Amino acid sequence: MMKKRWGIVATALFATLPLASSHAQDIRDQIKVTTGKAELVFPDTDAHAVAERVRDAVSQFAVTMDVNFRSLPAQLSPWPERPNIKQVFVQGAPLVEYQCPTAYAEFMKKPAPVRNKLLFLAEMTQFCFYQFEKGVKAYVIFHRAKKTESLTAGLFEGIAKTIQGSDEERITKQLQETLATIKAKDPNVLVARLEVPGKPLQEPDKVAVSALIPPAPATQPLPAQPMQFAHAPQGMPVAPSTPAMNAQQSKIEARKNLNAMGMSYHSQEQFMAAIKRKDDVAVQLFLDGDGIDPQAKNAAGKSPTEIAQQVGALDIVQLIQNKISQKSLPATPAAQTTQVQPPAAIAAPAVLLPVSSSAKPLSPETMAEIEAALDARKVPPEQRDAIRTQLVQQLQRLHQLAGQAN
Fold this sequence. Notes:
Layout: H1 9-14, E1 30-42, H2 47-58, E2 64-69, E3 84-90, E4 93-99, E5 105-110, E6 114-115, E7 120-132, E8 135-148, H3 153-164, H4 167-185, E9 190-195, H5 206-212, H6 247-260, H7 268-276, H8 280-289, H9 304-310, H10 314-327, H11 364-376, H12 381-405
Antiparallel strand pairs: 1-8, 1-9, 2-5, 3-4, 5-7, 6-7, 7-8
Helix pairs in contact: 2-4, 6-8, 8-10, 9-10, 11-12
């Protein structure tokens, strides 16, 4: 039997959203998602004990919580890893999602949504744990989603604010209550950051955290990003599925989101300001929008990477370095088509497994994911067909082997 995959945040959060009605949608019909984040540091080397204490602290009767423990890192770094930031779309709504594939422990707490004829509210808290040399860093991410319809939008907002306050107030209160519960169980925990949209950034234990996590070096190694599939058989690497968007669509959506936040995708000054205030979501959108230069220096002669290092934003350093690495990949000349060699980042399998003539074709979803992966890695047209064929053959053969094993 194939192992059950860990579901993505968007799927868990929106699984109970009401389906779109059959009538034409009003422009005011929308899904709104707001996310707040707290970063905690535990000066403790017993990583599993830290995760267990947090799980015991936040567990509630009759509230669903998915729990996933993974292997601890074989070698510890002075700098903890962090969640990946992905832009996904749910029922047409853009959502900045935090994914934690390298966390050694991950919890998702999902209370039942509030649903009636006038309103729909869904909330979820995500916990991701990363071990480093001097302890454990945990991310507590609170997602709040609501569905509004044109006929009841005003009434919906009034009821929601009366019951739980504004989105910002609700997120702040929920994160603070969660942190208080964790502190009662583990008094040594440090609060590195507390971020809520529309609220000032809080760093109550910044000095103590700096003593445990050193500033990022100028050349921090970046994690490998091999191509992965969402519907692979057991034994294949898997990653959370995302909509099949090409690079151009991703740029457009990032620019729209920046515009909605009151920023311009081509403003180098606003990009630098987002780095200084450690706004990783805005920085990711600027990089995705591709309207700024991730290496251009400001009037003081500081590059974006140097500014991120100066303010101690290791996660933003990694985002910028990833973008610079993508831009610096050498292009393959179009004339060199006699020997097709796939790029190292998406190298086809070294050993081609034989495929039976009775192999079933892959599903449209899997084919779409292959195309999306090729698009994301900007595979040259002259290499695309050969790489796609090899990948399809290997997946077909692995499907056959999985069927025989079952």
